[in-house]
Design a protein that fits this description.
214 residues, elongated, 6 helices, single chain
Length: 214
């Protein structure tokens, strides 16, 4: 696959990522603030939210895969890593999908842990490249560091969602109370603040890719 085609797909995936994030945050806000709706209806929307959330996960994997292939094509990484990235990316997509489909089981929890370990490893690898490859353009090294930051923000959001579902489980089991609804809204605000940081980093990545200022 040519570099121009890879770059075009890489750009499209970035838009796909941001668009998905906007939809997810909007639906999340609706679920949290519409406490006047029946709990069953909010639960149905929550199940739909988790399905939509998959698109952000896919986008992250695709960006990592395509980015590695682009670097290999430019000769900044060994050419063999391009093929390895393709296979590893497809395997990671499979892990993401399996994690989603089994998320309500013990297996799903183990797969989710494995997925987080992969993300930690990728973030560390990106930071290592950003700090050690002194002959690479500064704008590219900054992109890699920012991408590691994006992954970190995504992981922090996941931890907020764990808090959300802990409280939401109480709502499902025992019903809504003002205290539980306040907790859900507070978790939403924390997650959204982290998401805002993620968006800023993604915009900075896009700007660096276009402007290449240094």
């Amino acid at each position: 696959m040519s570099q121009s085609v890879l770059l075009a797909i890489h750009t499209v995936v970035l838009g796909y990522w941001l668009g998905s994030d906007l939809v997810i945050n909007s639906e999340y806000r609706f679920i949290v603030h519409r406490h006047d709706l029946p709990v069953a209806a909010r639960q149905e929307m929550t199940d739909h939210l988790m399905k939509v959330d998959q698109h952000v996960r896919y986008a992250l994997v695709l960006q990592a895969m395509l980015g590695t292939m682009l670097l290999a094509g430019l000769g900044l990484l060994p050419v063999s890593l391009g093929g390895i990235a393709l296979v590893a990316g497809l395997a990671w997509l499979g892990l993401v999908e399996a994690t989603h489909r089994t998320r309500k089981s013990a297996l799903g929890l183990r797969l989710a842990l494995l997925d987080r370990v992969v993300r930690y490893g990728l973030a560390l690898a990106l930071l290592a490249l950003a700090f050690t490859q002194a002959d690479w353009p500064v704008w590219l090294r900054l992109k890699l560091g920012l991408f590691a930051g994006v992954i970190g923000c995504g992981l922090l959001i996941r931890f907020q969602l764990i808090r959300h579902f802990s409280t939401w489980g109480e709502v499902l089991a025992e019903g809504s109370t003002p205290e539980r609804e306040a907790s859900l809204r507070a978790t939403y605000r924390r997650a959204t603040s982290i998401l805002s940081g993620l968006w800023l980093q993604v915009f900075a990545i896009a700007a660096l890719a276009v402007l290449r200022p240094f």
